[in-house]
């Protein structure tokens, strides 16, 4: 084998390997790269969730979340205890927060929902539990997506702090 041919062969292989690395970085979704491993999921499931109570509205029918600001630590399992004590339905809408978290499940009544969660509707007197693990530190917006509710101040802020 000539040195010229060996050099070409080596350059082709290095180019192929570099191309595969670049393709993986640019074309794999971030969730595939940063998703928790099955073993870390098992450890998270053994971790008792920290309960956080959030009310959507109140008995005076004020358009607000109580509390308005929520703080979480990345990698810690939480159970959001959501309730709606008001006489009208409300939504807990925080798509970017949901995308930055791993949702284990949502329970309401005798129903358990698993998979991606972006918005929860709570009818008057409704309650739901959302078990999740915030993963990506940042500040996220919370609002009620019923027309007029956000504009009337039914908004909040969710902060995920690094562990």
Please describe the structure with a list of short key phrases separated by commas or semicolons.
three-stranded mixed sheet, elongated, 4 helices, six-stranded mixed sheet, 163 residues, alpha+beta
Structural summary, described in words:
The chain is an alpha+beta fold and 163 residues long. Helix content is 27%, strand content 37%. The protein has a six-stranded mixed β-sheet. Strands 3-11-10 form a three-stranded mixed β-sheet. Mean pLDDT is 85; it is low at 30-35.
Q: Can you give the helix content as a percent range?
A: 25-40%
Q: Major sheet: size, sense and barrel closure?
A: 6 strands, mixed
**Unreliable spans:** 30-35
Secondary structure tally, helices: 4
Structural class comes to: alpha+beta
Compute the number of strand runs. 11
Q: Within the largest sheet, what's the order of strands?
A: 2-1-4-9-6-7
Q: Quick one: overall form?
A: elongated
Portion of residues in beta strands equals 35-45%
Question: What is the H-and-E element order?
Answer: HHHEEEEEHEEEEEE
Q: In angstroms, what is the radius of gyration?
A: 22 Å
Averaged pLDDT: 85
**N-end to C-end Cα span:** 55 Å
